Amino acid sequence: MKQIQPRIYKGTRDFLPEDMRKRNYVLSIIKEIFGIYGFEPLETPSIELWDTLSGKYGDEADRLTYRFTDRGNREVGLRYDLTVPLSRLIANYPQIPKPFKRYQIQPVWRADKPQKGRFREFYQCDVDIVGSPSVLADAEIIAITNDILKKLNFQKYKIRLNSRKILSGIREISGARREEEILICRALDKIDKIGISGVRRQLRDYKISSNSVESIMEIILFEGTSEEQLSRLKDLFTSSKVGLEGIEEMSTLLLYLKEYQISKEILFFDLYLARGLDYYTGPIFETNVEEPKIGSITGGGRYDNLIGLFSGNDQPATGTTIGLERIITVMDELNLFPNNLSTEVQVLVTVFDESTLPYSIRISNRLRNAGIKTDLYSGKSKLRGQFGLANDKKIPIVIIAGPDEKEKNEVNVKLMKSGEQFKVSLIDLIRKVQSLLVE
Amino acid sequence: MKQIQPRIYKGTRDFLPEDMRKRNYVLSIIKEIFGIYGFEPLETPSIELWDTLSGKYGDEADRLTYRFTDRGNREVGLRYDLTVPLSRLIANYPQIPKPFKRYQIQPVWRADKPQKGRFREFYQCDVDIVGSPSVLADAEIIAITNDILKKLNFQKYKIRLNSRKILSGIREISGARREEEILICRALDKIDKIGISGVRRQLRDYKISSNSVESIMEIILFEGTSEEQLSRLKDLFTSSKVGLEGIEEMSTLLLYLKEYQISKEILFFDLYLARGLDYYTGPIFETNVEEPKIGSITGGGRYDNLIGLFSGNDQPATGTTIGLERIITVMDELNLFPNNLSTEVQVLVTVFDESTLPYSIRISNRLRNAGIKTDLYSGKSKLRGQFGLANDKKIPIVIIAGPDEKEKNEVNVKLMKSGEQFKVSLIDLIRKVQSLLVE
Predict the structure, then answer these.
(1) Which of A291, A358, A432, B13 has a CA 20 to 30 Å removed from the CA of A202?
(2) Structural domain of B396
């Protein structure tokens, strides 16, 4: 075997223990809130048949899906998100009691050019309710989002709401054609990056008539409270059934959300919000932070027709992605992680020499049987190097047992922070270590 | 978009909530023991460069690795195991303090024909110590394996030990050539499936001289206690340096393992054990259960040269895979899962009608704020259907609040098991539900 350069595939990452501790901290809070809202875990395969993945998200997504043929010449791909696999699964298991509430935390892949903050492999963390046409389900999803961010100590964030039905209404009264609707959404979705004039240009590039473009822009640029905006839209939508439906739903959604007591500074109706994916059909929502500038940290919406593509009959569904990777980035920048996320190892049992090694094993066994997280030194270094390891790994307690201690059935305990050192009998060791750890 | 058959890619699986509960139960115990032994979590990417993956495990494994080119024409593959990615990572981060103790729980992929119990995607759960040449590290890995199986309530299992150095010694004194050593290991690795005569046939098929074959088989077929076998081998190995080294290490390993108090009925030296992968260099170990017949449920060993392929200088390492999937299969068949692994949802709050819906939200909020796992019904069914859902999902407590209850600020609590139903004021609700849940 020849020597190989240890290269990682660009756009993917190794997560070392210090990274994993942060990820696990965030995930444990997310899972806790999911559980409290009555959601249960689910997983689907990484590889799906190409037929399952293709044509669900839009052309760009199709191009960015990892696609290959397996040894049996089957066309397959790595999942692009967790929503399409969920939809396929729901069609596979029609007997699942509805509404079905699941969360799913797994990696997804994008055959994209890697950039700062954009990866070829990253985790998505999705929560969805399948089988409920009620905006109560949308309200629950939004309330979860808010609860998770609060629990993670986020202070400044905005949850923006809109509805694909309202955007449909705007398209209808603008005179643009039905096929142009998704183009309008895609253009609007870029507003944070390209600004209002950029959207206008993009719409024209999409060959949407300039009358329609101006009509759309005029409506979008409405200002006012959620109530004012909705009431103005209602007046405009007299000829748009879908538009009026959207207004009605949005008003009910905002009414329900009041019960969840989400502050008005956090939650509001926002006509700029469009979301880029093809499959949304009703309310859509997104969360943004002001600092750092990183785009949305959660995003989702209702997709009532996607499951029907697999099952033949439609099944209403709504849900959101919680952007685990961006949340971690923001928490890092804003210093929102607790200080004590260092090593979990509580005690290092050193090895004096070969003759006392069995005694060191015995000490470790005792500590471990008491549930104390214990590292038994197995390397080549003398005591000095072993202390170095405890130092590097920030292990708070080190135990030393040479031939004298072994003889007397005792050990030396060293506290790494203070440097303090004292002898304890083997019998008292557990009690002593436990009391040191709660200090 | 056209309608699509909801097909899963063969050899992969969906894990529904009832599957996930079992998986999470096993994983929580495994992670707890890993933590107690001082191991920390780590993850690596699913996709690695083909150069990283190829030529590490043997020809068959190379063939079974999912391989494709990305959009930039780079040759990549899906990881085949977690050991090679760890080795690549260690070379990438030479500054990691050693011994480095990590665990890693992630899926791996095999482009294999799916069969009962053999999947194209499955989780591996690995625990390794990098940077320790001492058999104490091997002993720790074996002790963890034993602790995990005990904690999972396994009764009848055997941990088998051997050493690639001892197998080298046997090869040397058999007169077989050095290049034939891995073939001898691969043939022996199949002994459970093809029996002793099958191994003999396989060795001849590999064109190993019949003198060597007979000499190997004679030694392998030794019977006796671990001590008797080792002492006989020691006598035979006078001319084999590596063989004697293997005997010496195995004796020390068995001595250390005594301190971990693993019963003699569980742990023993077994010359039949060879392991199929190319990269092992020292002690190897495997765990088998008698029932059901499923092959090994854990397996690993020392691989002192693998990391050197990436870093240029060797780094001793040892570890094992805990066969999560097989462990779950065995626990299912032997009924080792606790009975209470049903839904985690504790309360279903029903919705009487549109007018009382905000009151139902308020009730859910209270329960959720108290940390009670609460489903708020968001579907289309009347109360009867809502009770049906509680029944299907085995949710123990159902709360009903119609206009009368809303008026009086109270709720109806129904216990699904007994059918008992009573009224509680909103103020007393949390205390009442909490006391019902601990009953």
Answers:
(1) A291
(2) 347-438
